[in-house]
Amino acid sequence: MRFTAETSAIRALAVDAVERAGSGHPGMPLGMAEIADVVWRRHLRHDPAVPDWTDRDRFVLSNGHGSMLLYALLHLTGYDLTVDDLKAFRQLGSRTPGHPERGVTPGVETTTGPLAQGLANAVGMALAERLLAIEFNRPGHEVVDHRTFVFVGDGCLMEGLSHEVCSLAGTLARGIGLGKLVVFYDDNGISIDGPVEGWFTDDTPARFEAYGWQVIPAVDGHDTEAIDHAVEQALADPTRPTLICCRTVIGLGSPGKAGSHDVHGAPLGPSELQATRDNLGWPHPPFEIPGEVREAWDHRAEGARVHARWEESFECYRSAFPDLAAEYERRTAGHLPHDWRQLVEKLLDRIRASEPASVATRRASQLVIEELAPELPELFGGSADLTGSNLTNWSGSTPVTADGGNYLSYGVREFGMAALMNGLALHGGLIPYGGTFLMFSEYARNGIRMAALMGLRSILVLTHDSIGLGEDGPTHQPVEQTATLRLMPNLHVWRPCDLLETAVAWTAAIERAGGPTALALSRQNLVPQDRSPSQVDQVARGGYVLRDVAQPAAVIIATGSEVELAMRAAAELAGDGVPVRVVSMPCVEVFDSQPADYREEVLPAGVPRVVVEAGATGGWYRHATVVVGIDQFGESAPAAALFEHFGLDLDAVVGAVRGLLATSA
Ligand SMILES: Cc1ncc(C[n+]2csc(CCOP(=O)(O)OP(=O)(O)O)c2C)c(N)n1
Question: Measuring from each residue's beta carbon to the nearest atom of ligand 1, which residues come in under 6 Å?
Fold first, then answer.
């Protein structure tokens, strides 16, 4: 094998940075250097000076452990990522963390490391590109026209998530088309435990053909012409995504470790590092790149040219279609329509003025979507095969077809849905929301976590939020899910109690540009609560006084379906001369972030508190000394029988308050 100076530069930067950090993954960058060279120097359209140019090609490193490959590419092509940044690989506060993180390093499109999620994000990005192209392009004005390139390894393809999203991508290819999605499979036969033949023997090309993908098998992943030819073939297919199966040698270039799992995730060590330098014919000291190699990689001038051409074409588009151009800019900037707030105020006024009726909050959610969606074309809905239960559709929902659409039936793929939604949100121009049962948020959990980590505006509609779903039984009845979702940093969990709180929760979720929101919604009907205008305003603070008394002896805090129970308990206690305040707390995270004086106003120190929520109690003890909840699995029975069986009824709540007052008296 003859190594070129350009690929040796990638290899040298990767092994030197890993060596310096004393940890990292040299095997993948060494093994994918030629593929990276072809993609980044011959095909990728990007502008290193403007990493967020909306029509750039997307590049996703799904096998994110090989992060040094991406950092080397960003550095070499001219992004704002210096040699010092590379030297700080994996150090505290550096711009080169262990795995690529969006928002930390310019040019990193998505945070990867949890295998296969990058691939799922990429399917979402490619879908977003198609949706926006259909919506915004006009004959002669292809303002949305970019490709999505992805690297995956054996690990990504072993993960079940890859099946979920690649199967769905195959189906989407038959409709809207995903021809601009090109995935490179780093088929090196090695994962951490050793040669994969002991645990991964699928016929991968046949698998992807069965999905309906274009598959280019048996490409020599170290032969740049063969790779280039495969990319041309991939891009020539207008509808099918392509998997390019590249036979590679992990750690290629390291004479003593190539082909072995030893090179996957540990520094080479000084003597093997020197042997690798010698083998590559790379005499330069660590982190030094000769001028001519830098020049060969430098993409700044070409990137600026390609970008400027697009800007010119966008100006022509603007002249011909000024409204569309403005809308494209608004949408891709993530700004809400200018009259958004008025729309929300009108909606809340209408709800307050309407005849109160008992509705399930899942149904309330649908009513709210119906009101907001017509004014919010970026809202992109869907459900993991539970549309009729999640009530995520509205009268203007149109399924994704060759003509576009705003609603995707994800099939029974909860994790795929969450991770694909992240890709839509990352791409920009769309605000994804997707439904499943709260119980099955467990299947989606790491996708939700990545949305929280990346700060993505993605909205999870999680219905059937307690034993209140009834007869389907303990497999479907969430117990600990609301509590555990609340533990996730940067996730807001709303559990509204009626139509008005649901409307506020939805608007908060849409306005929340910096993170995801989970809406926990009831299957069963809930009694609407009365509120003054100032109480309506306070719902957005996450917790507020719903029923007040002059000198409360106790406070009952409740969420969602248990608010009406708390109100009944307070009324009963009032009848016995015990004045009790009720606090509705639809979003604990938002309430906890309020100024101390507001929190003190709502929950005065020294007044004993009881919480009632049909779920795990653990998380509540920082707000109350007594929690009426459920710390065991549910049962199959009608909802009313279950609430009684599990002690979530009037007697229990009244008894809890009395007991607390007796002990604190
Ligand atoms: C979801 C998930 N599980 C486990 C890991 C830990 N892990 C990182 S790399 C890897 C093996 C990946 O093998 P492969 O994709 O073949 O990478 P290569 O050895 O070729 O670099 C594993 C298990 C992870 N990052 N994500």
Answer: 27-28, 63, 65, 113-115, 153-156, 186, 188, 190-192, 250, 264
